[in-house]
Amino acid sequence: MKRLIIGIIVGFLIGGSISYAKVIGSPPPDRDISVSLANWFTDVYNNFNKLDVLTATPNGVRNGTDGQIVLFNDGGTYKLFTAVGTGTVWQQL
Known about the structure:
Layout lengths: L1 H19 L14 H12 L5 E3 L14 E6 L2 E7 L6 E3 L1
Parallel strand pairs: 1-2
Antiparallel strand pairs: 2-3, 3-4
């Protein structure tokens, strides 16, 4: 009985780690959203696991291209910033 319980726990651990490692496919296109919003969602989807995590606010310091997204770690609180235009202007989302 003890081996069965240990086998079930090990199975859940192995199965859980495999299921979380899968890359989720892109969602189907939605005809009700604009092209620019669809492009923004595509950029977010493509770069979701590649966000730069910063420990200093990017506004006024970091150069960015229009629509670039970074993640700001403010002492354990994460905030999402996007570049507005070109230069060092960033807006929190």
